[in-house]
Batch of 2 targets.
Target 1
Amino acid sequence: AQRVTQPEKLLSVFKGAPVELKCNYSYSGSPELFWYVQYSRQRLQLLLRHISRESIKGFTADLNKGETSFHLKKPFAQEEDSAMYYCALSPQGGSEKLVFGKGTKLTVNP
Amino acid sequence: NAGVMQNPRHLVRRRGQEARLRCSPMKGHSHVYWYRQLPEEGLKFMVYLQKENIIDESGMPKERFSAEFPKEGPSILRIQQVVRGDSAAYFCASSPRDRAHGYTFGSGTRLTVV
């Protein structure tokens, strides 16, 4: 079965501290992994996808197939990073649907 | 480009009534997806449609729920005889044929069944 686990419901850090939002997945094939972000009163938007291997707003995420993880990291958190973060998986073979984790609420304190 | 438009933003229905949720995809997008988010849960896939075709409805409950994406007009998610357990946020997303940039989500419709 396809499953995405985000073990932390809430995560609180201070401004300037490193932040890591954990994501583990369960899937037997080679999935495509994404991070979506939802800022307060805004719609869900794509932050990162593992295929593009890019850094957006200082965030990076590396797919670790051995550990089946796709953790989201930022070396120096900013207050504007406070938001809900969702990890999502798209199964292999061009399947269009996404499997989402339950999300982690990140709060960056001043 | 107005993005993915969902209406209404909030919908209140009494048990047994019908709920109709609308989604207008982004201009140029021909693929529409519906997701449901129950309280304290992640988004759960319901259905994927292209114009006049249901491609994947594996996440749709077997009864009372239906979806369409007609040749003209928005995509409609219809819930008949709503029950309290249908209370949730329903999100629509759209994408072009090439999904290289992922989905674009709407703001969602929050359905409350009283």
Target 2
Amino acid sequence: DSGVTQTPKHLITATGQRVTLRCSPRSGDLSVYWYQQSLDQGLQFLIQYYNGEERAKGNILERFSAQQFPDLHSELNLSSLELGDSALYFCASSPLGGRNTEAFFGQGTRLTVV
Amino acid sequence: SQELEQSPQSLIVQEGKNLTINCTSSKTLYGLYWYKQKYGEGLIFLMMLQKGGEEKSHEKITAKLDEKKQQSSLHITASQPSHAGIYLCGADMGRRALTFGSGTRLQVQP
């Protein structure tokens, strides 16, 4: 158990809908990362938050947004969903926001868009 | 990512055999992370390498980072069915988040 908790584990929704994925980082970790894992693209970095502030952006679509709350949990919002958004979405956390820190991953949320 | 090439893409070995997975970067790395993923589950951190020539071992798994810090190998000795899964290398290329290889799917046949 990495200590990173993601909910829900599975989500099935229709195209055009909006969903929210939730992540609770390990106790004491200030940094949260969101990744998308699909069969054709592999594991892609979406966005990082550090202590409530956006720190880095990766390949995140404009239809997607995230935030980190004062209690450090984070939410990833996906809107106007398309079939191609079906993927595993992972959250990872680390103690600091810089490099060379181990990132601990949650179990992921499997999103299926039908 | 084409910046980080992982090979082989898949591997089937007999239980008890040794195997090696490679991860090659087009750039010098600040650090290299190895993770294991069971199908459809989260990533389990295995090891992190930072210094050129560094080698780390945990149980039957050894990871090395070459002197130039552009290539890493993960070696499993006397493989067991419990080693089956997807092995991912993640590279610190000086960005905020890791860049991951495409993964190596390992099957170990009893």
